[in-house]
Amino acid sequence: MTSVLYDVPGPRARRRALIASIITGIALAGALAWVIVTLTGEGLFDADRWDVFRDPVVWGALGGALLVTLQVAAIASVLAVLLGSVFALLRLSRLKVVRVPTTVVLEFLRGMPVLLMMFFILIMFATSQYWAVVMGLALYNGAIIGEALRAGIVALPKGQREAGLALGMTPLLTRLLVEFPQAFRAMTPIIVAQLVVLLKDSSLGYIVGLEELVRRQRTLAEFYGFSQYGFSFFVITLFAFLIVNLVLSMLARRLASRDPAGRASRRAARKTTGENADTTAIASIRTRRSEAQPPVAPPSDHGGGDGGN
Amino acid sequence: MQFLIESGDVLLEGFLSTLRMLALTVLLAVPLGILLAAMRISPVPTLRWVSAGFTELLRNTPLTLVFFLLVFVLPRLGVIVDFQISAIAALTLYTAPFYAEAIRSGINSVPSGQAEAARSLGLTFGQTASLVIIPQAIRTVVPPLINVTIALTKNTSVAGGFLVFELFASSRRLANNYADETIAIFLVVAACYLAITIPLGRLADQLEKKVAVLR
C-alpha cells in the first residue's frame, strides 16, 4: 500500500475517512439489499429454485464436468510449459534459419484469439472438441510462456553465460544447464499466473462445444427448465470457478514466496496482474537489471497474457 | 480465395463490428479502471475493500461466465438489452480490473521519494496524487495499458460465441459455407486480428524503450 501518499491520519482525517467509509458502507449495503430484494422478488431464493441440488445425480454431472475442465487445463498446462521451453530455446538460437521462423510463429500464435485457434483446429484437423481445446490452449499459452522464458534468459547477467563458456561447455550446454534453469526459476511466478489464465480459458470450450463445466451447467439448467433453474446453476458454477481459481492463485503466491532464487521473482509475484504476465516480466527484469548495471532497454515483448483469451 | 470475392463483405462487416466493440469497451473500461485504481489507493478503507473485492471476483471468473450471466441469465431476471450492449458490458466489467491493476502498478513504480518530497512540501493527498504521482505514473502505465488492450482485442472474439456478429462469428459462418477453403479463411481472419494486435504491441515496445531511458 502506498501509504506514503498521505500522512498518518490525524483525528480530523480519521474522522473524515470514517465518515466516507460509513457512507460507502451504507451505499454498498443498500445496493446489496436492493439486489437481494429484487432477486427474492423474482423468487430466486425459493426452495423450488434449488431443489434439484438435492439430487446427487446433478452434483455428479457437475463434478464430472468440473473434472473435464481441470483435466483439459492440466494436460494443456504441461504441454504449454514444454512448448514454451522449446520456443524460448529456438527463439534464442544462434542460427538465423531457426530464430526467424520461430519469431514469426510466436508472433502469429500470440496475436490472435485462442478461440479462433481452437475453432480452426477443430475443423481443420477434424479432432474431437477435447483435443481442439487442449491444443489451442497449449499452443497459445506455450507461445506466451516461451516469450516469458526468453525474456528471463536475456535478463540474466552476462557473466553466467561467460562462466559456462569459460568452463569449456558448449554454447548449447551452457544455455541448457546454466541459463535456462535460472530463467525458469525466476519466471516461475509468471508461468503459474499464466496457467491460472489457462484454466479460465478452458471455459472457452463452451463455445467450441466441449462438454465442460459451463456447457454442462447450461445443459442441466435447460433440462430442468432454464427459467426456473438457470440462475441457480449459474451461481453454483461461478462458485466452483472462484474456489478453484482462488486456491490456484494462492498456491502461485506461496510458490513465489518460497522460491529461494531471489527477490526478483518475489517482487514479480507481488506485482503480477494475472492477465499481464508479460508486463510483469519486464517489471521484474528491469528491477533486477538496475541492481547490477545502468538500465538497459528491456527486451522487446508484447502481447498481454490473456484472461479469457 | 473464392470466399474473399463472394463474401468479403461479411468479413469486413465482422471486422468493423469487432473494431466498434473494441473502441466502445476501451472508452468505458479505462475510466472504470481509473476509478477502481483510485479507490484502491484511497485513504478510505471501505473504498479499498470494494475495489479489491471487485477486482478479485472478476479476475477469477472466466470471461465466458461473465458473458453467460449478461447474455442468458440477466434477461431471465427482466434485464433485456441488445446483445451488442450485453457484450460490451461483459467486456467492460471483465477488462476494467485489469486496467486498474496496470494503473496501480504504475503508481507503485513511482519512486517513493517523489511522494515524500511532495508530502514534505505540504501538498495534500489530492495534490500529491494529481500533480506529482499521476503525471509520472502515466508514462510507465501506458505500455501495460496497451497490453491489456491487446488482450481485450483477442477477448472480443468471445462475443462471437454469444450471439454477437463480429470477426470470429463471421469466420465461423464463412467456414461453414466454404468448407474446402478453411485454411485460407483461418489465415485471413487471423491476419485481421494480427492487424490490430501487432501494431499495438510494437507501439507498447516503443513506449517501453522510451520510458526505460527516462528513468
From TrEMBL, chain A:
<comment type="similarity">
    <text>Belongs to the binding-protein-dependent transport system permease family.</text>
</comment>
<keyword id="KW-0813">Transport</keyword>
<feature type="transmembrane region" description="Helical">
    <location>
        <begin position="57"/>
        <end position="90"/>
    </location>
</feature>
<dbReference type="GO" id="GO:0022857">
    <property type="term" value="F:transmembrane transporter activity"/>
</dbReference>
<feature type="region of interest" description="Disordered">
    <location>
        <begin position="262"/>
        <end position="309"/>
    </location>
</feature>
<keyword id="KW-1133">Transmembrane helix</keyword>
<dbReference type="InterPro" id="IPR000515">
    <property type="entry name" value="MetI-like"/>
</dbReference>
<keyword id="KW-0812">Transmembrane</keyword>
<dbReference type="InterPro" id="IPR043429">
    <property type="entry name" value="ArtM/GltK/GlnP/TcyL/YhdX-like"/>
</dbReference>
<dbReference type="InterPro" id="IPR035906">
    <property type="entry name" value="MetI-like_sf"/>
</dbReference>
<dbReference type="GO" id="GO:0006865">
    <property type="term" value="P:amino acid transport"/>
</dbReference>
<keyword id="KW-0472">Membrane</keyword>
<feature type="domain" description="ABC transmembrane type-1">
    <location>
        <begin position="66"/>
        <end position="252"/>
    </location>
</feature>
<feature type="transmembrane region" description="Helical">
    <location>
        <begin position="111"/>
        <end position="132"/>
    </location>
</feature>
<dbReference type="GO" id="GO:0043190">
    <property type="term" value="C:ATP-binding cassette (ABC) transporter complex"/>
</dbReference>
<feature type="transmembrane region" description="Helical">
    <location>
        <begin position="229"/>
        <end position="248"/>
    </location>
</feature>
<keyword id="KW-1003">Cell membrane</keyword>
<dbReference type="Pfam" id="PF00528">
    <property type="entry name" value="BPD_transp_1"/>
</dbReference>
<dbReference type="InterPro" id="IPR010065">
    <property type="entry name" value="AA_ABC_transptr_permease_3TM"/>
</dbReference>
<protein>
    <submittedName>
        <fullName>Amino acid ABC transporter membrane protein 2 (PAAT family)</fullName>
    </submittedName>
</protein>
<feature type="transmembrane region" description="Helical">
    <location>
        <begin position="17"/>
        <end position="37"/>
    </location>
</feature>
From TrEMBL, chain B:
<feature type="transmembrane region" description="Helical">
    <location>
        <begin position="61"/>
        <end position="81"/>
    </location>
</feature>
<dbReference type="InterPro" id="IPR010065">
    <property type="entry name" value="AA_ABC_transptr_permease_3TM"/>
</dbReference>
<feature type="transmembrane region" description="Helical">
    <location>
        <begin position="21"/>
        <end position="41"/>
    </location>
</feature>
<keyword id="KW-1003">Cell membrane</keyword>
<dbReference type="Pfam" id="PF00528">
    <property type="entry name" value="BPD_transp_1"/>
</dbReference>
<dbReference type="GO" id="GO:0022857">
    <property type="term" value="F:transmembrane transporter activity"/>
</dbReference>
<feature type="domain" description="ABC transmembrane type-1">
    <location>
        <begin position="15"/>
        <end position="204"/>
    </location>
</feature>
<keyword id="KW-0812">Transmembrane</keyword>
<protein>
    <submittedName>
        <fullName>Amino acid ABC transporter membrane protein 1 (PAAT family)</fullName>
    </submittedName>
</protein>
<dbReference type="GO" id="GO:0043190">
    <property type="term" value="C:ATP-binding cassette (ABC) transporter complex"/>
</dbReference>
<comment type="similarity">
    <text>Belongs to the binding-protein-dependent transport system permease family. HisMQ subfamily.</text>
</comment>
<dbReference type="InterPro" id="IPR043429">
    <property type="entry name" value="ArtM/GltK/GlnP/TcyL/YhdX-like"/>
</dbReference>
<keyword id="KW-0813">Transport</keyword>
<keyword id="KW-0029">Amino-acid transport</keyword>
<keyword id="KW-0472">Membrane</keyword>
<keyword id="KW-1133">Transmembrane helix</keyword>
<dbReference type="GO" id="GO:0006865">
    <property type="term" value="P:amino acid transport"/>
</dbReference>
<dbReference type="InterPro" id="IPR035906">
    <property type="entry name" value="MetI-like_sf"/>
</dbReference>
<feature type="transmembrane region" description="Helical">
    <location>
        <begin position="182"/>
        <end position="201"/>
    </location>
</feature>
<dbReference type="InterPro" id="IPR000515">
    <property type="entry name" value="MetI-like"/>
</dbReference>
